[in-house]
Structure formats: structure tokens, C-alpha cells
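Next comes this protein:
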Amino acid sequence: MRPGDPSLLRRVNTQITLRALRRQGVATLTQLGRITGLSRQTVETVLDELGGRGWVQETPPDEGAMGRPARRFRFRADAGYVLGVDIGANKILATLADLNGEVVAVERVAVDDGAPAPERLALAERTVLACVDGAGVPRRRVWTVAAGTSGIIDRSGRVSLSILLPGWTGVDLAAVAGRWLDCPGLAENDANLALLAEHWRGSAQHASDVVYLLVGHRTGAGVLIAGRLHRGRSGGAGEIGALRQVAWESGSVELTRDAAADEVFVAAGAGDPGALRMVDRFAANLAVGASALVLAIDPELVVVGGGCSRAGDVLLTPLRRHLDELCLTPPQVALSTFGDESVALGAVRLALDHVEREVLGL
């Protein structure tokens, strides 16, 4: 970067103007000049350029405005779209969102937990295309697809290890996802994405150090440190369930299937003694792994998500009690805001991050 480089200056002016307009929603030239510190002429030049790219649109003046109305502009969130998809053991959930992250369409289908990898991927593609086509969005206007799934996902988006889904180890999920809509594809661990969703718009918005527990068909964890997702050297951070002594993979088998879990939690909520004992054992087992993460990270918050989060306080009350017993300074414990939709929404956030960085230059 050379001092006084005009191309660099233009990029900086474009970035700060676009950021300000996205925050404001609709703004006049004067307002944007005051927010950015740029001259009215500079702001107008930037907006004309962004308008030429299709990212900014001039809006009509307010009805009943007196005199010569000020020119008003808005960011075109519908200029492009991103798609997040959760490829799980027994469901595939696709979520389409605009460039402001507002969800415009959702498509969900069931899948057999024993489905081979090619069948699961083919169903995921059909679900993604149905989501986009059903929303009436041209496929070319989807700028990035991000997929979430269980297992360890390396930095390239390849599944380096999966013990839950048949034939899943070695699948280049990012590359496959990109081919569905001929755009950049990304892939990440499901618990990590669920944590991103909660930090973005959910229960962990105001916390910087967080442990997220994905509790459903399997139990996994994601870790946020100083406001940033911690993936670890190989992408395996949070995979404490691999430790045999934690017994996340083998403990409380009766609560690892959604239907069985729902029945037990309902019965426990009604005060059934047997169901209450079963939930307490499940919470105690969950607390062992959670406390190991809590003792290592000392987070402000533990968020419980996934299918079992539907149990609410029936699960949270015994979990809090067991964490209090195991942790030196027990953190707050909260339910997920998004439940089993959090992985797909976190994938939307991951895709938006890519678009903002690589396309919008933010």
C-alpha cells in the first residue's frame, strides 16, 4: 500500500459508507456524511458506484415531504442470498437468507440415519434446490452455500473424521456444497455453527466466552473464546465426547433418540419418578463433559441446544445442579434460542461472513 494510493482510498471510502448504510437501513447523503466523516460529494460518488453494482438503491421520498426532499438510499439486501444447510443424522434443513441475514425460506426433510453418503448428499442437494426454487430466487443469485455436519471438519471443508454418519469420513463437503449452486462452498462442524448462531442472534449475544452443548441424536460441543469461535489445530476443539471416561457416546442411550427423549422429558415434566431419575442420570452424564470444558475455559455461559433443548427446565434444572457440584465457579446455563434450527442458521452466518469479506469487501 503506497501513501496516497487513490485506489486504496476509494476502497476505504466504499467500505465505511457501505457499513454505515447497512447499519442505518435507509439514510440520506447528509446522514451518511455525518456518520462516516466523508464529504457529501465523496459519499454521493461511492453510492453511485455501489448502485452500479446493484448493491445500493435510491428510495422514494417520504409521502407528504415538503420542499425538495433529501435523496435517500438503502442497501439492497436482496441483491444476493446465502444458504445454510444442516446435514444431520435424521434430518436435512436448508435455510435461505438475504444479505442482511433475514431468513426468506426454509426446507426440511427427514433422512434415515443409516443412509449411505451418496444418498445423503443427493437428498441434501434436492433439499437445497427446493428451498431456493420454492422462494422464487434465481439460483445464480445465491452467492455462498455453507454446510454443517457432525464430525471433525478441516480448514478446507473436508470431513476428516466422522463416526456418526456412514461413509462420511473423507467427504469434501465444502466442494460438494459449492457445486449445488455453482458458487463458493463452505463446511463446518455442526456444534460450532450452532454456537455461531447463538452468538449472532441468540442466547449468547452478550457473552464472549461460551461453551455450547449440542444435545440430541448425539452430543457435541462448540467453544467461543474472546468472542471468536475456537476450532483448534485440526478442527477438533470441543470433541470431548471422544474421551471414553466422559461417556457421551455411550451413556444414557435411552435419551439419544428424539422420540424416546421427548416421551421421557414429557413424563419427567409431569412428575413421573422413573422419568425424573432417567433425566437426572442423563444430566449427570452431560455435566461430566461440560464441566471439563468449563474448568478448562472458565466461560461466562453454557448454552444447551439441539433436539433435547426442547425439554427446557426439565433438563436444565438437574444440569445446573450437577455443574454446581463439579465446577469451581459455575457459569450461567441457558437454553438455545433456536433449538434444532441453530446449525442451519449458524451456516447462514458463516456464509454471510464469507460474502462480507470476499464480495462486499468488509
About this structure: The radius of gyration is 23 Å. The chain has a mean pLDDT of 91. The longest strand covers residues 91-98. The chain has ten helices and 15 strands.
